Amino acid sequence: MAGGDTRATGPLGLLYAAYERRLLAGIDHASLPAHVAVLADGNRRWARANAPDQPLVVGYQAGADKLKEFVGWCDEIGIPLVTLWVLSTDNLRRSGEDEVGPLLRVIEELVLELALRHRVQVVGDLGLLPKTMADNVAAAERATADLPGIHVNVAVAYGGRRELRDAVRSLLAKEAASGTDLAELAQTLEIDQIAENLYTAGQPDPDLIIRTSGEQRLSGFLMWQSAHSEFYFCEALWPDFRKVDFLRALRSYTQRERRFGR
């Protein structure tokens, strides 16, 4: 079972399509976000509600199918950069092997399928993943590095605090290799030096972050990068997230006055 397009056929389908066109027409395309990030939350709850007699992997697969749709929507409307959070370090610690194993297989297949069409970058601590999976997704990343079009970050084994730790470790290692004294570094360290060592180094920060399932928190997602992001929270469980929900999020974003902390 998948959480694909829930639009009905017949008269209801025509009404849905008309509403979608109306939403699209109401969006200021000149003000679209350059980078959209999504916390695709609610896959397990969706599985329990829609497939109570089946394993939770049904929900993970429905969520993966929706993520592929979501990337297509972003590509279609002209958003050049998307970040999908599919597995946190907390998920890895909390869940047993009987749940994590099937989830990891769904995620690996998702990355490989996205890599057939788009440039894919895996952001997270690949050292926490099984070696075969880590090798496969890293190979997919290398193979798509020069593809034009939309850039898709897939956040796997990702935690915001871990990313900051890894950025500081990387920065310290580079400075030590160049002979910089630690006391000197403490006096001269700049914000940009940390940013240059994040998983997303060189990318623009997310303009819009969407979270589904009714949760209204970031849970450590892109802690550094989200300092000036706009947030949109949606009640729908991720597999039930529709294109009209996405268009509503974009409409809300384009109607806001961004202040960037000013």
Distance between the termini: 47 Å
Count the E strands. Answer: 6
Portion of residues within helices: 40-55%
Average pLDDT taken over every residue: 93
The radius of gyration computed from the alpha-carbon positions, rounded to a whole number of angstroms, is 19 Å
CATH superfamily of the domain at 34-158 and 199-253: Decaprenyl diphosphate synthase-like
Overall spatial form: globular
Relative strand content: 5-15%
Label the structural class: alpha/beta
Low-confidence stretches: 1-6
Please give the order of strands in the largest beta sheet: 3-4-2-1-5-6
Descriptive key words:
262 residues; alpha/beta; Undecaprenyl pyrophosphate synthetase; 6-stranded parallel sheet; 10 helices; 6 strands; 47% helix; globular; disordered N terminus
